[in-house]
Every structure is written in structure tokens, then in C-alpha cells.
Design a protein that fits this description.
Bound molecules: zinc ion
Order of helices and strands: EHEE
Largest sheet: 3 strands, antiparallel
Helix content: 10-25%
Strand order of the largest sheet: 1-3-2
Oligomer: single chain
Distance between the termini: 5 Å
Strand content: 15-25%
Number of strands: 3
Number of domains: 1
Shape: globular
Radius of gyration: 11 Å
Length: about 55
């Protein structure tokens, strides 16, 4: 699972494909909420606020 900014969305998808060999589901973080999970405060690849969830 990746939480990434727009800039790193493609990279997260690439890594996901490499690891899981199937395309990920991509969610806009603002539009999803999970009761027992809160989004990290920064992108997995940089310090920006994450915008997308790649799972
Ligand atoms: Zn980033």
C-alpha cells in the first residue's frame, strides 16, 4: 500500500506492479475514510502531503 503525492503516483503504480504483478486500485485520499486507519502525513517518497492511496 502506498500513500503518495501526485508527483509520485506513477512511481507507486510501477512499484506495485513489480511487487504484486497486478494493477493497483487507486483512491483519492480526500474521498476515502477508514475508521481504523488514518492517512500518513506525508508521501511515501517525499515530504509532500499525500493525495492518492494505491492498494
Ligand atoms: Zn511524493
Amino acid at each position: 500500500m502506498y500513500c503518495v503525492c501526485e508527483e509520485h503516483l506513477a512511481r507507486a503504480i510501477d512499484e506495485f506492479l513489480e511487487i504484486y504483478e497486478m494493477p493497483p486500485d487507486i483512491y483519492v485520499l480526500e474521498e476515502v475514510s477508514f475508521t481504523d486507519w488514518s492517512a500518513p502525513s506525508h508521501c511515501d517518497f517525499c515530504g509532500k502531503i499525500p493525495e492518492f492511496l494505491v492498494v
